[in-house]
Amino acid sequence: MFANIGNKLVNKFKAEIREDYVYIIKTFKVWEFEKYRPLKNNLKIHFLFGTTVKEVDEGESKRLPL
Questions:
Q1: In degrees rounded to 5, what are phi and psi of residue 60?
Q2: Do 51 and 26 touch, CB atoms closer than 8 A?
Q3: Which of 7, 17, 43, 66 is the most exposed place for a label (fewest CB within 10 A)?
Q4: Phi, psi dihedrals of residue 10, rounded to the nearest 5°
Q5: Predicted model pTM
Q6: Nearest Cα to Cα of residue 52 among 35, 18, 28, 31
């Protein structure tokens, strides 16, 4: 899934999100791509001021469905 974090929120999430990790993300909007589509899926997550991010530990992430 592709996610979009606006300029005003980048600093808020920059230290919280790392590549190759699994997260539980709450309170966001789902938008359709208008022009640029980096994935086959035509939907993207848009982070909001109230979005929360929690890293899932490795043992817990193995139990999540793919």
A1: -70, -35
A2: yes
A3: 66
A4: -55, -50
A5: 0.74
A6: 28
HSE of 18, CA atoms in CB hemisphere, 13 A: 5
**What's the chain look like in SS3?**
CEEECCCCCHHHHHCCCCCCCCEEEEEEEEEECCCCCCCCCCEEEEEEEEEEEEECCHHHHCCCCC
pLDDT tens digits, one per residue of 12-66: 998 889 888 888 899 999 988 777 767 777 888 999 999 999 998 876 666 666 6
Task: Evaluate whether 30 touches 45 at the Cβ level (below 8 Å).
Answer: yes
Q: State how far the Cα of 23 lies from the Cα of 56, in Å rounded to an integer.
A: 5
